[in-house]
Amino acid sequence: xxxxxxxxxxxxxxxxxxxxxxxxxxxxxxxxxxxxxxxxxxxxxxxxxxxxxxxxxxxxxxxxxxxxxxxxxxxxxxxxxxxxxxxxxxxxxxxxxxxxxxxxxxxxxxxxxxxxxxxxxxxxxxxxxxxxxxxxxxxxxxxxxxxxxxxxxxxxxxxxxxxxxxxxxxxxxxxxxxxxxxxxxxxxxxxxxxxxxxxxxxxxxxxxxxxxxxxxxxxxxxxxxxxxxxxxxxxxxxxxxxxxxxxxxxxxxxxxxxxxxxxxxxxxxxxxxxxx
Length: 276
Hints:
The protein is α/β, with parallel strands linked by helices. Helix content is 39%, strand content 20%. The chain has a seven-stranded mixed beta sheet with strand order 3-2-1-4-5-7-6, sandwiched between helices.
């Protein structure tokens, strides 16, 4: 398990990330200029369909101003900042990558949201929170890096209040071997894909009841087609975060989706009573 986590950390190590972000963001204004979460959308929504997917998942999860939210695998904090700005809720993010957490804090300072959104370095398998702390947990394009899925989902259930919502938006296997590298793994050694059916079979025994279950693969394919038609993304973009080979990683994700090797799953679960 330690070797796997070290491999995932290495994939997302990204040394000097905050300094690169500072340089890239000069295109939007001086260092003391406050930015909006929307201005950062091209570089901080690290998942298929970007900001639109986060917005849809939050709506399906029923998030409101009173919802305490945990974003597991929060990256550089884009979804957390979007949720706080859109709904007025408090959001906590956790990520295994310390450079990502540092960058998330910096970007949150730039948007003036540090009093509402916080981040810390932690493993999704050992969340540093009391039982029943949150009313909603989001997991977007994270589980593919985690081999012990049963433990992941049990830990998410532990920190959720009974009746709380677990919303996941993830890449799933359709049975074919993916072309590597991809955004979450440069080799198969840190990629642990499950089919949609096995994902559900692993989540529900952890104490969850499905409320929403939908295959969003076609929407993801349409997004890929649109990206290809629109040409290279404007700067700053996700290449700043993931490095110079991000174009290849992204292209392979698109190829895998278009060839049907991978699919996209959107699902929302309710945290059932532990005694049932």
